[in-house]
Amino acid sequence: MLDGLPPASAGDVAFRIFCTPELSQHRSADHDILTARARFHLRNARWQVVPTPVGEVQAYVYEPDGAPRGTVMLVHGWTSEAAFMTAFTEPLRRSGMRVVAFDFPAHGLSPGRRTNLADCARAMLAVCDHFGPIDGVVAHSFGGFVALLVAEGGPPLDHAHRIGHFVLISCPNQLSEVTRNFGKTLNLRPAAQRAYERHLERVGHRPVSTFSAAALLRDVEAPVLIIHGREDEEVALQNAEDIVAAHPGARLMAFEGLGHRNVLFAPPVFRAVMNELAPRDAAMARGADRDIKASA
Questions:
Q1: Which of 60, 172, 189, 192 has the smallest count of CB within 10 Å of its CB?
Q2: Is residue 201 a part of any domain in this protein?
Q3: Full residue range of the structural domain in which residue 168 is found
Q4: What is the dihedral sign for C-alpha 157, 178, 185, 194?
Q5: pLDDT tens digits for range 44-95
Q6: Would 190 be classed as within a structural domain?
Q7: pLDDT average, residue stretch 41-45
């Protein structure tokens, strides 16, 4: 696709495409229909616009019936939006947790057309600081990279936000694998691939080759649950296995029959998330169990 351009020009174009969610090859043809259906589940949230260093983002807050026992943040993936994470909101809310979700810049109902990993991390850090402390995060796919970067607080961020508990769903491990696969879809030659990755390193302030979920988890002391579908064709299960192998405190739950997106709507995954993050007392557990059964 871009193999006829000079390497520098091809790298420039590839970077612009990579940073434009609506141009992603992973966005399905029926994305708009699915989005309209998913946004229905935002109706019970309190909508709030949150200022960030990279522009305002749209956030959604689900308050429990009584005083909140903690705050859980839901973090969506690339080309997705908060609405696709709402299957987790009601069980967590009924368990006594305040649930906060938000749309990355250039995603969902947040303004903009282009964004990148660094700007998404800056936006999430501002949302965490606004609603924090954050007791737990449920992050899907690319959102896992973002959440881990926020917790680590290294470049390009100027500080970290401590996160008490991680649930990472379908999270990639190596950014270099993501960029390499993207380059293949555009037929980037080696020089053009390097030019494209230099743009990412410029905005991210760190080499693509060293950016990985396993590395970001190195200094994280919080409990980490890794959830992955064995039939995930976008992010292979090997990613989850590599993350767990590099982090002694991480645990892996691999589910049969689930792919990259339907893992977000599977009752066994709801139960795993609830067992990990919800308060453990009997009354709350009974209420959460009722919600999980109703969701199923």
A1: 189
A2: no
A3: 34-175+211-295
A4: positive
A5: 999 999 999 999 999 999 999 999 999 999 999 999 999 999 999 999 999 9
A6: no
A7: 94
Please write down the HEC assignment for all residues of 127-145. Answer: HHHHHCCECEEEEECHHHH
How many residues would you count in the chain? 296
State how many domains the chain has. 1
Would the pTM count as exceeding 0.90? yes
Q: What ranges in the chain are assigned the alpha helix state H?
A: 7-18, 31-39, 89-94, 117-131, 142-152, 175-185, 190-204, 213-216, 237-246, 267-277, 282-295
Q: Is residue 171 part of a domain?
A: yes
The pairing of strands 250-255 and 136-140 is unpaired
90 within some domain: yes
Which residues pair with residue 226 across a beta bridge?
168, 252
DSSP assignments along 199-244, one per residue:
HHHHHHTS-GGG-BHHHHTTT--S-EEEEEETT-SSS-HHHHHHHH
Residue 241 Cα to chain centre, angstroms? 18
The CATH number given to whatever domain includes residue 101 is: 3.40.50.1820
- Spatial CA neighbour of 126 closest among 160, 171, 86: 160
- For 1, 103, 204, the CA distances from 197, given in Å and listed in that order, are 17, 25, 10
